[in-house]
Design goal:
By secondary structure, this protein is an alpha/beta fold. It contains 22 helices and 26 strands. Helix 9 (about 155-170) links the parallel strand 4 and strand 5. The chain is globular. Bound molecules: beta-D-glucopyranose (BGC). Beta-D-glucopyranose (BGC) binds near residues 130, 183, 263 and 462.
């Protein structure tokens, strides 16, 4: 298809239509179009609906086929619709929520998850997924931390990159591949107070060094689209922010794909106070470089008038439309408007046993053991009780799993019984008082209690922010009750955000199980029984108190840092709480124990184009084989801008057989020593750097190296 020629044939209305994205029901209910209230409110007529370029949120192949057929019957130029949807952590085979997945420290699993998601979604006729979410967040109050990969820019970038590669592979025209739309550009995760949709106010330095890295990695991996965020940045909503959409995306990053609003976010620049009305919103959007408008109707209703009044150059419209046509061409829609959709395949391939097996493997690595005083793994010789609000839950899919079917998931009781664990008492209760006298008598016969605690699926995700990130009081009371009764408890946490766990530290074991998807309780049973040795490490700091937020490991030093043991009062600290988190970034236990010794370097000084090798001996001290993630952090002591006390720069997740000792090597080169200035340019400055290696962001041993001073120009890349 010659899309330039096609563009020339389109009327101005038809061009603008390509920039409109509507939901399937707009097309399905076309008979009532003129009278249906919602459409009227949006100023939509049947003609406008049937000029739209794309669809949001298709349910299955049959629906896709019928919408496309109906659309093409009415379309003058036979330009097919492109179907987009939110496939976030699986289509019907649901995988761990992204926050859990990131605790695996195994980005390859993100690729595997994206592959299965793409294969399944493609059979429903979905061509584009609104994933990955690359929003970095340092605030567990924000409900959408569940959709992201944690607080670290490096880890975030690795995961987003693998997601894009998994969705698209090398060719989005192939059945089984879908195009990736990375979101929400930019810095949506820095919402003030953790309240969703709230103001964002971050410096350009922080943007480039932390918040933008994930989107950039996705684009470098070839993501075809990018979605703008709901928030303002520098006082201008991201959706009409020219600096972001043209300056950063097009000029700095050379992105040539499509930009798309978030749901209704072009219209929302009116309540933001940046446009008088939808007409002005349309004007600002097209000038800023915004292509597709999702769910609102500023372009379709006003762009024509703006062009006719010479307020907008038609070239801007043409550029945007050409990008839409190019995507359709790349997907192959002009050859086959039903690309991928197959009712037959859908019924055999979706949620197949093979896919469920992959999901279970991913879930195995997405669990974090936070505490274990010799209670885990469970023993087949002991008797256990399983109690709590989630004791019999099947709702393990988590937010954004709209095609997933919780009712098909197993309960923990079912999966543990299969493993011959004696569960003599199982009761789903929300508070201690729900346990009857008879229950308490029965409980005298058990050796330990498994408490299934947490938050329900609707308590995290979009628009689900919280000010209190403790467990509800009635849940904490279970731990206190059983401690007083002299019974050990093992807490399982089903949740979507870091909690303040300070009130349940009396539990003898704590296992973070998040929402692990279709095979959650199968994977949890494998971990609880020791079939699988846990290997996850948390990717967000778990605070001691909500008042410490934002709390993140890669913070600056301040001019008056708190030094443990030093009694100076005029330093950066709290009167009533420590600075440190309860559980630090990178922390997670295993049934094995690892020791780190003998950190050494190939040389202590390097010039710009040299590399240094850093070695450490890591030993599995136990009889149990297991994975350990060996982490490398670097500190730049002195630079033009103040640099964090440590930054993750590398890691290796390695299998250790019982008692195995390995030499682990990291290669240090200039790219690990650089940072970005406030324009996004890479800067390297000579001087002393600290290299730290260990099993979490606080359990580290370190050595210093010197990057030698050379000609100044050598350091400007
Ligand atoms: C969310 C996006 C999502 C979009 C379309 C919005 O409310 O913020 O993440 O992709 O809806 O469903």
């Amino acid at each position: 298809m010659d899309i330039n020629l096609l563009l020339k044939k389109l009327t101005i209305e038809e061009k603008i239509g390509q920039l409109l994205q509507l939901s399937p029901f707009h097309f399905i209910r076309d008979i009532e179009v003129e009278v249906f209230g919602h459409l009227k409110e949006l100023g939509l007529t049947e003609k406008k609906v049937f000029s739209a370029g794309s669809v949001l949120g298709i349910h299955n192949a049959a629906e896709m086929i019928s919408v496309q057929e109906k659309y093409l019957r009415k379309s003058t130029h036979q330009i097919p619709l492109v179907f987009m949807a939110d496939i976030i952590h699986g289509y019907e085979t649901i995988f761990p929520v992204p926050l859990a997945l990131s605790t695996s420290w195994n980005p390859k699993l993100a690729f595997d998850m994206a592959r299965v998601s793409a294969i399944e979604a493609s059979t429903a006729g979905i061509h584009v997924t609104f994933s990955p979410m690359a929003d970095l967040s340092r605030d567990p109050r924000w409900g959408r931390v569940v959709e992201g990969f944690g607080e670290d820019p490096y880890l975030n970038a690795l995961f987003t990159k693998e997601m894009v590669k998994g969705y698209q592979q090398d060719d989005i025209s192939q059945d089984g591949n879908v195009a990736s739309c990375v979101k929400h550009f930019a810095a949506y995760g820095a919402a003030e107070g953790g309240r969703d949709y709230n103001t964002v106010d971050v410096s350009r330095l922080s943007l480039h060094n932390y918040y933008l890295k994930g989107y950039k990695a996705a684009i470098d991996a070839g993501a075809k689209l990018i979605m703008t965020s709901f928030n303002v940045l520098d006082g201008i909503p991201a959706t009409i922010n020219k600096h972001l959409l043209r300056g950063v995306l097009r000029d700095l990053w050379k992105f040539d794909g499509l930009t798309i609003t978030d749901y209704d976010s072009l219209h929302q620049v009116v309540p933001h106070g940046n446009a008088e009305n939808d007409e002005e919103a349309a004007l600002k959007g097209i000038i800023a470089g915004l292509d597709i408008e999702m769910a609102s109707t500023c372009y379709i209703n006003y762009l024509k008038k703006l062009i006719e009044n010479h307020e907008v150059d038609i070239k801007l419209l043409d550029e945007a439309v050409l990008r839409v046509l190019k995507l359709k061409e790349e997907i192959g829609l002009f050859d086959n408007p039903y690309k991928g959709a197959s009712v037959e395949l859908e019924s055999t391939l979706v949620r197949s046993n093979d896919h469920l097996e992959i999901s279970k493997k991913v879930a195995h690595e997405s669990v974090v053991l936070l505490k274990n005083e010799n209670l885990l793994p469970l023993s087949t010789h002991k008797k256990y009780a399983l109690i709590g609000p989630y004791a019999e839950t099947r709702n393990t899919n988590g937010p954004w799993s709209w095609h997933g079917k919780n009712e098909l998931n197993h309960t923990l009781k079912e999966t543990l019984l299969e493993k011959n664990i004696s569960m003599t008492f199982v009761k789903q209760v929300v508070r201690v008082e729900d346990l009857t006298k008879e229950d308490l008598i029965e409980l005298k016969n058990v050796d330990a209690v498994i408490l299934a605690l947490g938050e329900n699926e609707r308590e995290s995700g979009e628009a689900h922010s919280k000010v209190d990130i403790k467990l509800p009081r009635n849940q904490e009371e279970f731990v206190e009750f059983f401690r007083q009764a002299g019974l050990d408890s093992i807490v399982l946490l089903y949740h979507g955000r870091p909690f303040d766990l300070s009130n349940i530290m009396d539990a003898k074991a704590i296992l973070d199980v998040y929402y692990l998807g279709s095979m959650a309780n199968d994977a949890i049973a494998d971990i609880l029984t020791g079939v699988i040795n846990p290997s996850g490490k948390i990717t967000m700091s778990y605070p001691r108190h909500v008042g410490q937020i934002p709390i993140y490991y890669n913070h600056l030093n301040t001019g008056r840092p708190k030094i443990e043991g030093d009694r100076n009062e005029y330093v950066s600290y709290y009167l009533d709480e420590l600075n440190t988190p309860l559980f630090p970034f990178g922390f997670g236990l295993s049934y094995s124990k690892f020791s780190y010794q003998n950190l050494r370097l190939s040389q202590f000084e390097m010039s710009l184009n040299e590399e240094i090798s850093l070695f450490i001996d890591v030993q599995n001290e136990t009889e149990i084989g297991g994975f350990e993630t060996v982490q490398l952090y670097i500190r730049d002591y002195v630079a033009t801008i103040s640099r964090p006390v440590k930054e993750l720069k590398g890691f290796q997740k390695i299998w250790f057989a019982p008692h195995q000792r390995r030499v682990v090597e990291f290669v240090i080169n200039k790219s690990l020593l650089s940072y970005l200035d406030d324009q996004g340019n890479e800067v390297i400055e000579p001087g002393r750097f600290q290299l730290m290696v260990g099993s979490s962001s606080i359990e580290l041993t370190s050595l210093d190296i010197i990057l030698k001073k050379e000609e100044v120009n050598d350091f400007k890349k």
